Amino acid sequence: MDVKSLKRATELAKFFIGTIIKEGDLVVDATMGNGNDTLFLAQTVGKEGSVISFDIQDLAILNTKKLLDKNNINNSKLIQDGHENIDRYISNEICGAMFNLGYLPKGDRNIVTKPETTIVAIDKCLKLLKRNGIITIVIYYGHLGGEDEKEKIIHYVEKLDENKFHVLKVDYINQTKEPPILITIIKK
After folding, report:
1. Record's superkingdom (predicted)?
2. What is the pLDDT of residues 24-55, one digit of tens each?
């Protein structure tokens, strides 16, 4: 791990998930955004693997498609639907999933993830997750409704059965202005 991975929660999430997933795996980007996690996952699982990515916004689909095309990636399926509907599209076991909560960078800050749908999505991912699979959740909460989502997500993951899951929480404790929080869940 390099210093860059420690400076940003998203890079640390990639580091953690990158130690678990491998070529040929089925993985999920539950919050597609601008496609950076989709690209990372697609490159990590390779041509034999698959990435299923979710977002509700046209701009997210467009930006991600452009990024994947630019990098000659064709092992990803982009779905314009809420991540809470993951089970409509996936029935096979997944090896990993990534969530970046909040709003689309450079997008409409009024369109944000919501705790009610996010918790449903996390729960469904946990049910689809294979043994030793991983879920990363980066929580951005400096926007309207973000604090509520943060508290509800943390409360939810704190209650996961310790006999079934390892749950790690990473805080940037000396940073001000609502630094992101990383939650990592590994299924035993």
Report:
1. Bacteria
2. 999 999 999 999 999 999 999 999 999 999 99
Two tokens, residue 162: 């310790």
Q: Tell me the mean pLDDT per 10 residues along the chain, length 188.
A: 76 96 99 98 98 97 98 98 98 98 87 96 99 98 93 98 98 91 98
Pairing of strands 94-101, 76-80: unpaired
Quickly tell me which residue has 């689809």 as its tokens: 128
Our CA angle for 90, 94, 100, nearest 5°, is: 90
pTM of the model: 0.96
For the chain, the helix, strand and coil percentages under 3-state DSSP, each to the nearest 5: 40, 25, 35
35 dihedral zone (left: phi>0; alpha: psi -120 to 50; beta)? left
Q: Which residues of 5-27 are buried (b: 16+ CB within 10 A; e: fewer)?
A: beeebbbbbbbbbbebbeeebbb
Residues 150 and 78: their CA atoms lie apart, in Å, by 26
| DSSP label of 84 | G
Q: Is 65 helix (H, G, I), strand (E, B) or coil?
A: helix
Domain spans, the chain? 3-187
